[in-house]
């Protein structure tokens, strides 16, 4: 770990909320990194379990920031504000890193001084069993905006990026209770290539009950993100068409789900939103 009076090269940020059952494995995987010039910041987003006493055992090997529960976006943003490193890496508290993860990514940036963001491949573990990511989850490399519209192709635990880029983007959108990563990587990938290091340097663990990604309403937040892109960002004609088409598709799927659950009024709202974006004649723009 670098000394506090020097700026570390990399700041690692772990946001956590009531994950004392797995948090120490995530922390230990950071402290075991072969790359020495880093600091670890754990943002405790109002945990009510054993997290505070667990963190106190690490003493000065990490920095702890505590806040009342405000969600993962606010927790990551708080960590970014406190970070001293020029490069930022995130780790979700239920994931783990291989020991060379930071070393490989810093070496990539040293070799590619124009690159602003890169990620690595992952090993997926579901309920303790290794699974192979499906073809649609394959991570492309470079200009990935259009393939990223359908589903998030960047994993927070696998990414390293320049702090300046996060500041330029305004960090994670704190108004989104989920899909905040989908939203940020879309905004980044509009402007910059997102590079892939083709090595499995992250162990991604899923399938447990408290995962945000198990929520049924995720498409609602993706729709919110797509609508924001169309309203606020400068898109090329092709990007507008692709974003509008994905917004309509997600609205129709979400509305059908609402109807199935007897929520006719909510369904009508999303059908109207799809229709509103159909009025842009995307084929002529």
Q: How is the secondary structure organized here?
A:
Blueprint lengths: L9 E7 L3 H12 L6 E7 L6 H6 L6 E4 L5 H11 L4 E4 L5 E2 L3 H11 L5 E10 L2 E3 L13 H4 L10 E4 H7 L10 H12 L3 E12 L11 H15 L4 H24 L3 H15 L7
Parallel strand pairs: 1-2, 1-4, 2-3, 6-9
Antiparallel strand pairs: 4-8, 5-9, 6-7, 6-8
Helix pairs in contact: 7-8, 8-9, 9-10
Describe the structure.
It contains ten helices and nine strands. Helix content is 41%, strand content 19%. It starts with 9 loop residues before the first strand and ends in a 7-residue tail after the last helix. The longest helix has 24 residues, at 237-260. The chain is globular, with a radius of gyration of 20 Å. The chain is α/β, with parallel strands linked by helices. Strands 1, 2, 3, 4, 5, 6, 7, 8 and 9 form a nine-stranded mixed beta sheet that branches.
């Amino acid at each position: 770990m670098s000394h506090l009076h020097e700026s570390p090269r990399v700041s690692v940020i772990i946001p956590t909320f009531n994950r004392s059952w797995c948090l120490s494995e995530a922390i230990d995987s950071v402290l075991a990194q072969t790359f020495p010039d880093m600091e670890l910041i754990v943002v405790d987003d109002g945990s009510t379990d054993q997290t505070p006493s667990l963190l106190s055992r690490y003493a000065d090997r990490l920095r702890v920031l505590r806040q009342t529960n405000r969600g993962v976006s606010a927790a990551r943003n708080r960590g970014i504000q406190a970070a001293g490193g020029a490069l930022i890496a995130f780790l979700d508290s239920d994931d783990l890193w291989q020991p060379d993860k930071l070393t490989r990514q810093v070496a990539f940036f040293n070799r590619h001084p124009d690159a602003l963001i890169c990620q690595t491949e992952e090993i997926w573990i579901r309920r303790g069993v290794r699974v192979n990511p499906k073809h649609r989850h394959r991570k492309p490399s470079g200009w990935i905006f259009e393939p990223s519209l359908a589903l998030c192709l960047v994993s927070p635990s696998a990414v390293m990026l320049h702090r300046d880029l996060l500041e330029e983007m305004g960090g994670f959108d704190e108004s989104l209770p989920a899909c905040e990563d989908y939203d940020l990587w879309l905004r980044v990938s509009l402007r910059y290539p997102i590079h892939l290091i083709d090595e499995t340097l992250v162990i991604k663990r899923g399938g447990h009950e408290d995962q945000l990604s198990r929520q049924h309403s995720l498409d609602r937040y993706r729709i919110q993100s797509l609508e924001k892109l169309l309203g606020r960002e400068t898109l090329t004609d092709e990007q507008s068409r692709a974003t509008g088409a994905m917004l309509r598709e997600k609205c129709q799927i979400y509305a059908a789900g609402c109807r199935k659950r007897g929520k006719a009024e909510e369904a009508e709202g999303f059908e109207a939103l799809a229709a509103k974006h159909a009025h842009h004649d995307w084929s002529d723009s």
